[in-house]
Design brief:
422 residues; alpha+beta; 5-stranded parallel β-sheet; 12 helices; 23 strands; 27% helix; binds adenosine monophosphate; binds glycine
Length: 422
Amino acid sequence: MDILVVGSGGREHAIVHKLNQSIRAGKIYASPGNAGIAELAECLPYKATDIDAIVEAAKNLNIDLVFVAPDDPLALGMVDRLNEAGIRAFGPNKKAARLEGSKVFSKGLMKKYNIPTAAYQTFDNSKDAIKYIKTINYPIFIKADGLAVGKGAISADNYDEAVTAINTIMEDKVFGNSGNNIVIEEFMTGTEVTILAFTDGNVVVPMVSSQDHKQVYDNDEGPNTGGMGAFSPSRIYTPELAELCMETIFKPTINAMNKENSTFKGVIYFQLMITPDGPKVIEYNARFGDPEAQVVLPRLKTDLIDIIDAVIDGKLADINIEWHDNAAACVVMASGGYPVKYETGFEINLIENNEDLIIYHAGTKINESGKLVTNGGRVLCVTALAEDLKTALSKSYNAVSQINFKNAHYRKDIGINAIGKK
Ligand code: AMP
Ligand code: GLY
């Protein structure tokens, strides 16, 4: 089976890496890919959002399956367009991808179907929003409705900060039309856990748990990023909690999407806050997380292509998805200055992968002189596997210490709270 993976980050490298292990995989393509992906797949030059070019390429190359990994082509309806052209595609259609693409939609869904989440109000103009924030308790979160490359959620500790956030989103339009509407919500306290789940619209099958580190600096300081590191499993996600989430969040979400004529097929990313009042949804994503995919997928035993087929064909209940009983840790090596301003083009000195070490590439390319160089904010996702998390983390950091490129930045505290030392 020839497969095209759409996207270019560490997540897409993890997907290509896993697909490449399947005996069912024929030729693998990626668009646009990166230098690491290019070792396993033929990279096409089209941007992940260039729907016309991707559909055309899939037709011309007789691709059997297109895996649409990032949020923006999903929100733009790439899966619908591929299906219209008679091409099998993995990922939610445009209507279902609203679960991530519109916070007004997803919060409304949770309210309507009693799925636990932070209390909130939505606004379509800054005047009403500013009137409202005079009446409430702080801190709060103010979020752009649409996609905002992971930066659309701003916390405010007081009225002045809230006014600035509202104006930044609704008047200055820093996130463009994504900020035409906003959600203002209560601040939740607790521990964050990511649960990725496969669903075919009939059943929902959670993957092993993981946790992400969003802020750029140690001790959760500095601005939010796409994710600076992750580990799996999460110690706090007990079987009892998993059962509770299944009954109060996962199944109700699938059922709610069906009732709204928006059946979701693909991967749902449940970003959960485990609060003193129980688990609540922070947000949904309509895809694998990055870097969560880099710690979850290497632990998958079952053939990913079998799972993809079952999801597309509505037969997920018929297969048994198995996981390795181990742990995975991923440390992201980023360009200094990310997520704000950074330089690229620096030569990377890598080490070899081994059985327990997979260096997924994110922003890398081969330059004109044939050298591997940095080409993005997040550069490498150094993932190690071991019997336990502590060993996985130490293997990952050991590898990181041997890899270098100019201005490399990484967090030194990935997973530290989870292994019980601060
Ligand atoms: P989001 O873009 O909605 O994923 O939010 C980005 C990050 O902000 C999340 O990973 C949380 O750490 C934090 N966050 C978002 N909403 C809330 C909330 N209501 N309460 C506390 N933290 C939140
Ligand atoms: N790691 C966060 C995300 O993929 O959205």
